[in-house]
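Folded chain entry —
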Amino acid sequence: MQMPDPDQTILARREEIANHLRTIVPGEGVVVSPQELRVYESDGLTAYRQPPLLAILPETAQQVSEILAYCHAEGIKVVPRGSGTSLSGGALPLADGILLCMGKFNRVLDVDYDNRCVVVQPGVTNLGITKAVEQDSFYYAPDPSSQIACSIGGNVAENAGGVHCLKYGLTTNNLLGIEMVLIDGSILRFGGKHLDSPGYDLLGLMTGSEGLLGVVTEVTVRILPKPETARALLLGFPSSEQAGDCVAAIISEGIIPGGMEMMDKPAIEAAEAFVQAGYPLDVEALLIVELDGPQAEVDHLIGRVSEISGNCGAQTSRTSQNEEERQLFWAGRKAAFPAIGRLSPDYYCMDGTIPRNKLPHVLRRMREMSTDYGLRVANVFHAGDGNLHPLIMYDANNPGELERAEDFGSDILRLCVEVGGVLTGEHGVGVEKRDLMSEMFTEIDLKQQLRVKCAFDSKALLNPGKVFPELHRCAELGRMHIHKGKLPFPDIPRF
């Protein structure tokens, strides 16, 4: 994994840059100590580490504007960072870049029940939004497993999902507006409390842009009233293929559960030992299917799903009888990632998306790859929308195992594209999948995407080295070079 070579002139100006930034963010807002910078050297993709030139913690949008305007004028790279939970290396620092940390933007600014929305700063945690409105029986639907730690600004940057995204959508489906700062210091607003906006969908463009186009300083999200009833089923199957077939069968019957998650045997055993959620240990695959809505509808759908799962070979079926039991079912699923730490000293969490009907085939191929690479893999994923999260287990202390794990992960992502899926469902591209983008996109596709980047950041100062496998200068993207006022090949007809 290669990152842009550090600019030695910027490294030599470190103290000068720090002193100027202290005039914008006084006090302890600029971090330069090597020991203190160790906190910021990595994000959730801990295999890669790189201390930044320095870190800065602004508290206002105006401070962010002044920081970016200064960096734009001086040619200094900037990496935006929320809570640092990115699993794709999206917030990996640069040796010659400023790490712009948004953790102090942590206030809920407005709760508007009439318009069913909340305005928050980007450092507010995902779960914090629900906590702000749950006393009035409302909640924020997207709920990544890291929701206790991940910030809403990071959710916007990566278009995060969660266990309930099948029915209620990803971040983009629940986002109403943002305030953001461009690299030249301009402060813009896209969307707002209104339902829709005229013109180009710039809000959609910014969602999932991974910090390459601007820095979000305020977020307006949709909140929903809690369903009248919500119950979850635990369905155990003798094989992952049968569980995958059940997923497709439920959706094909026109049933859209609030959430539908799948775990294979290694993940089941680890989660049960960690949380003691009551998961069956004599099955090869487990589905958690949540149904919500009016009680009569939920009762009816539970019967239909039970029947479908029986026809698909389910050997165990258990339905939550109260809210505590439903939450316990989900607690095991949401703790699956840390629980894998009980099985292996290190693991590599992947993220790819496939068509639902390809689940059985992809699971078979992953088992074959696991044998070929000599590495165990546990599978935890959002089965309803085909978003896979294979957890490849390895020991970084054993020479070559990290590299094998990365190669294994790359082959899984190539398989996702091969069967009609995509490289990422919610974790983003970052540095992890950057060099696989050509597996999915042609050079023309990538250059068109890069032209959008150039329209917002012509100097490529925002989060460089991420997403695009080859960093072209904006001037190289089809612009004609004119030397001393003369066009090249002036005799060629121009149109």
In short: The longest helix spans residues 401-418. The chain has a mean pLDDT of 92. The chain is about 35% helix and 20% strand.
